[in-house]
User: Which sequence fits this backbone?
């Protein structure tokens, strides 16, 4: 059947490995290991999806593809700690607290943004709930295994659970002000930054009591078969898991005062693992963040898109790094995700970070923030074969990713990159309608 | 191309069977005994008895075979040269219910309620009816035996169906019905046979998005399991025990938890199918999947799951460019598709459009091959006509056959497998002694060119199907109708936070339009501005609490569809239908 032929062709384009798709030998490149320095003219051998050997003069085992990277640069796959690609919905904005929902349930493997990100050297992404709610949904860490159509096939197996919190104007606009002033919709908390803190404390308190009630029930049911437990509450189950330290918190935030506020709240509830997302004013409280052990995932130079993000600087990542805060640079965008290496380079341009410090912003540091640094984020024997080959040093403005590998499988090759890499298309709209007016605007 | 001739034949056959509008006349039965004589009987898929007789008495089949005695009181249906099949069964259907208006639940209406609703106190915790969580409702209360859909389905050879209520995520319980009767009760064969579920989010309240619906299903099921246990404990000995909590939603899950009732999950695309399978795996309930239009993308997974499936007979609407092409031309276009093409759009838009069209044709072909590819993967399935116009059912099945589906499998999907799927295989699905006297009599082999349905028999009542005069097709493109934009419109906007419903009122004076908009969550009318009408294209703007919104629609008579651009960034799709939600 013709369509099967097409499917086979797609598969061939996407998975070009021969014997054992998860094996590859990348020879002779400058290997930027991130954790072990830069190694000139070095080979990297990937077997069964894991980095098996790093060294000079490695021989390819029988049937293993060899890629000549002489004169090129090999970087661990880029990791985006804040993304909303490949999701069929982002915000369940109907309530200030929706801890029970999970992006795991709405991963969309058909999204062509995954392929575009691969073309920018990204191999893992943290798919986050939106920032409408104080406590939004649980996030999902994926590997960009484009071509797989089962959402489960993209899952980063073993990655810890994470959850999205949000402070400031997003939750107050979504639930507070809009409700009371404009639309006639009943106002909910939070309408102010005070309200955000109140919602956080109230929900943590409810989670703590739920956990205590469960523990009491477990203890009681040992002697009393007629003991009755608390009503099941999926939302408080998640809050209890945060309190137990099983879920890492990633919090949308901008202002220094609210960053300090959340650290106080978390300290009161014994929650230790926190990464502040965006955190445009984090540079003001960098020592406090370092002392708490909090991390930051920031934009390189994006601000002034609303009132609370006017006080910002392109030195943010550098100041945080030099104060000992584990910092990453993220995209939060299907466009920026295609050139995170440029975003990292901006931290060097403005903050004077070293090459290694800058590259850590998009490799090992986001891996630490997502709890996956034992698997990805650097080129080390035993780690996953997630690799990118650049034609120039990735911090050069001229650098272009040539090939991207996930688990040793090549998912992007600039030499085999047809126009239409979509997995699914709109079958009802006339293509000519989509082009209507485009020609005119191009020629103007 | 090997398909073209068979496809043409299939389409012709389909036109003759289902494509034409028919009218039926019920013949007053002088006796409830019927003998169909001289026919080629297909008692079950893959079996044939030439020159056979089928006897139906008191609504049940009492004899099938060659030369069996014909009762003295039987009404004889002479079926020489005709073919007799078991009556078709639709395992998931809205038969007997009014179709929803545009504002009533994204095409599923009912439980979700009408257009501009009162704001709820807490959008995160709305009343059950607003949330679309009404599993305690029963389709029996909504059935209308006089509804046109009953006759339309009968004309297409359907004799029984599993009817489910319209609504949102959990619309209620389904019942097995026969497609005749003078009251709703007379239609019922078995009630409360299923819990119906679908990923149809609530509008503006929780659960609006797929992720919230997933979480809500887990929440309801897990808590219902706990309450089920408490109820048993309380029944055993209430002394000293606090009264277990009660509400009708959790209680409606008890038959599912006990394993007596399956969840019939309607899934409308690949991702919804994965999600339903995930819920079943997490929660462990019995499930039947219905819809599954993209089963071809996960055939192995479906086969491994063992979940019974009712495959939709609906296909995506054809894009305009495709409609005018003959099958052979389309095949040439598909054969010449080059997936490795690299064209610079600005150099050659035409070439890129042609390439996209070819890809589109191939993608549509996947939907048509869905059933055949599921069969190839070893998935057993029935057909469901839900969301298919009755007149299109056989036309679409004809396309599936032309795309490689086996005719025996197709017949099983209409009969025996459908009976299995709804747990009624002892009573229907084949022509056997003791089963309901439900059969379809065709002028030739069911899927052959030129065949037409001549009679449909339900419990011994014979309905003669006469090819009636075709449906009048007035006003083709809808651009020149007099009413224009002016009037009342009900609208649905599909936002990331769920559907929003509302109304648009437009008045016209000369060439000047004025309009007002209301929608869920907004308590006063918002004037619309910059109203432009250019043929079928309609655009306007307004200022919402969320920012400046530009709306561009294409109108086709009494329907409009298009997009609203919020703050120049977030596009949401909008559909409108002429009419006022509050009883016109």
Assistant:
């Amino acid at each position: 059947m013709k369509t099967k032929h097409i499917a086979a062709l797609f598969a061939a384009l996407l998975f070009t490995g021969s014997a054992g798709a998860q094996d590859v030998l990348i020879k002779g490149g400058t290997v930027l290991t991130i954790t072990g320095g830069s190694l000139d003219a070095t080979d990297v051998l990937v077997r069964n999806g894991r980095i098996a050997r790093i060294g000079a003069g490695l021989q390819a085992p029988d049937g293993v593809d060899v890629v000549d990277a002489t004169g090129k640069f090999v970087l661990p796959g880029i990791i985006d700690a804040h993304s909303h690609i490949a999701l069929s919905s982002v915000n369940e904005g109907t309530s200030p607290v929706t801890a029970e929902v999970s992006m795991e349930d709405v991963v969309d493997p058909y999204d062509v943004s995954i392929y575009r990100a691969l073309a920018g050297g990204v191999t893992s992404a943290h798919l986050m709930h939106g920032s409408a709610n104080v406590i939004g949904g649980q996030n999902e860490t994926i590997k960009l295994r484009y071509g797989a159509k089962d959402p489960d096939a993209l899952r980063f197996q073993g990655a810890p659970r994470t959850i999205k919190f949000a402070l400031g104007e997003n939750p107050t606009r979504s639930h507070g002000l809009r409700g009371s002033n404009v639309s006639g919709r009943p106002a909910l908390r939070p309408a102010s930054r005070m309200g955000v803190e109140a919602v956080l404390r109230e929900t943590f308190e409810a989670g703590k009591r739920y956990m205590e009630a469960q523990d009491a029930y477990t203890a009681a049911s040992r002697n009393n078969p007629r003991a009755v437990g608390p009503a099941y509450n999926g939302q408080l189950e998640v809050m209890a898991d945060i309190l137990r330290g099983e879920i890492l918190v990633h919090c949308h935030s901008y202002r220094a005062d609210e960053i300090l506020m959340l650290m106080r709240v978390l300290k009161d509830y014994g929650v230790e693992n926190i990464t502040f997302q965006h955190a445009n004013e984090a540079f003001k409280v960098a020592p406090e963040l370092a002392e708490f052990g909090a991390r930051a995932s920031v934009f390189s130079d994006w601000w002034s898109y609303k009132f609370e993000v006017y006080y910002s600087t392109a030195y943010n990542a550098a100041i945080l790094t030099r104060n000992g805060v584990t910092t990453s640079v993220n995209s939060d965008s299907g466009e920026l995700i295609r050139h995170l290496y440029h975003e990292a380079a901006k931290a060097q341009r403005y903050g004077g970070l070293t090459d290694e410090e800058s590259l850590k912003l998009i490799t090992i540091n986001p891996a630490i923030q997502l709890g996956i640094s034992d698997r990805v984020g650097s080129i080390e024997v035993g780690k996953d074969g997630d690799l990118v080959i650049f034609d120039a040093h990735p911090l050069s403005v001229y650098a272009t990713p040539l090939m991207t590998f996930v688990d040793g499988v090549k998912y992007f090759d600039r030499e085999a990159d047809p126009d239409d890499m979509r997995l699914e298309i709109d079958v009802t709209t006339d293509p000519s309608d989509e082009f209507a007016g485009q020609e005119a605007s191009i020629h103007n | 191309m090997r398909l073209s001739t068979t496809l043409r034949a299939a389409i012709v056959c389909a036109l003759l069977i289902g494509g034409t509008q028919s009218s039926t006349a019920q013949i007053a039965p002088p006796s409830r005994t019927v003998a169909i004589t001289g026919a080629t009987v297909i008692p079950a898929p893959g079996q044939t008895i030439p020159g056979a007789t089928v006897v139906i008495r008191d609504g049940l089949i009492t004899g099938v075979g060659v030369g069996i005695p014909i009762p003295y009181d039987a009404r004889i249906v002479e079926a020489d040269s005709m073919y007799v099949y078991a009556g078709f069964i639709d395992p998931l259907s809205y038969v007997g219910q009014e179709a929803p208006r545009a504002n009533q639940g994204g095409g599923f209406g009912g439980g979700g309620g009408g257009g501009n609703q009162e704001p709820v106190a807490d959008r995160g915790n709305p009343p059950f009816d607003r949330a679309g969580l009404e599993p305690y409702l029963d389709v029996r209360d909504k059935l209308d035996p006089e509804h046109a859909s009953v006759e339309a389905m009968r004309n297409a050879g359907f004799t029984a169906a599993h009817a489910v209520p319209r609504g949102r995520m959990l619309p209620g319980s389904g019942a097995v019905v026969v497609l005749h009767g003078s009251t709703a009760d007379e239609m019922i064969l078995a009630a409360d046979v299923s819990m119906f579920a679908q990923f149809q989010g609530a509008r503006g309240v929780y659960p609006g998005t797929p992720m919230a619906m997933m979480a809500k299903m887990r929440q309801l099921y897990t808590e219902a399991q706990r309450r089920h246990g408490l109820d048993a404990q309380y029944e055993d000995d209430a002394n000293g025990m606090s009264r277990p909590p009660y509400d009708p939603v959790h209680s409606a899950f008890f038959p599912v938890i006990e394993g007596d009732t399956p969840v019939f999950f309607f899934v409308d695309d690949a991702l919804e199918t994965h999600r339903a399978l995930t819920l079943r795996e997490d929660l462990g309930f019995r499930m039947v999947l219905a819809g599954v239009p993209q089963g071809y993308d996960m055939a192995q997974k479906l086969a491994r799951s063992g979940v019974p499936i009712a495959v939709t007979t609906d296909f995506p609407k054809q894009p305009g460019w495709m409609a005018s092409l003959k099958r052979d031309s389309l095949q040439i276009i598909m054969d010449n598709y080059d997936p490795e093409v690299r064209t610079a759009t600005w150099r050659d838009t035409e070439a890129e459009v042609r390439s996209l069209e070819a890809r589109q044709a191939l993608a549509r072909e996947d939907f048509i091959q869905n059933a055949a590819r599921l069969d190839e993967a070893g998935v057993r399935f029935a057909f469901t006509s839900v969301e298919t116009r009755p007149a299109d059912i056989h036309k679409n099945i004809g396309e599936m056959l032309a795309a490689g589906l086996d005719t025996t499998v197709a017949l099983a999907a209409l009969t025996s497998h459908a009976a299995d799927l709804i747990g009624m295989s002892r009573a229907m699905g084949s022509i056997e002694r003791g089963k309901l006297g439900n059969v379809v009599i065709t002028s030739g082999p069911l899927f052959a060119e030129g065949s037409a349905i001549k009679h449909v028999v339900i419990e011994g009542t014979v309905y003669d199907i006469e090819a009636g005069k075709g449906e009048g097709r007035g006003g083709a493109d809808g651009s020149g109708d007099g009413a224009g934009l002016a009037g009342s419109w009900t609208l649905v906007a599909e936002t990331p936070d769920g559907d929003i419903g509302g109304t648009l009122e437009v008045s016209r004076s000369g060439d000047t339009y004025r309009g007002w908009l209301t929608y869920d969550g907004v308590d006063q009318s918002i004037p619309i501005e910059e109203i432009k009408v250019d043929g079928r294209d309609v655009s306007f703007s307004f200022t919402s609490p969320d920012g400046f919104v530009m709306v561009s629609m294409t109108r086709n008579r009494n329907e409009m569809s298009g997009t609203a651009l919020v703050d120049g960034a977030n596009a949401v799709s909008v559909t409108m239908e002429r009419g006022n939600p509050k009883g016109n």
Notes: Confidence is low (pLDDT under 50) at residues 1-23, 102-115, 468-483 of chain B.
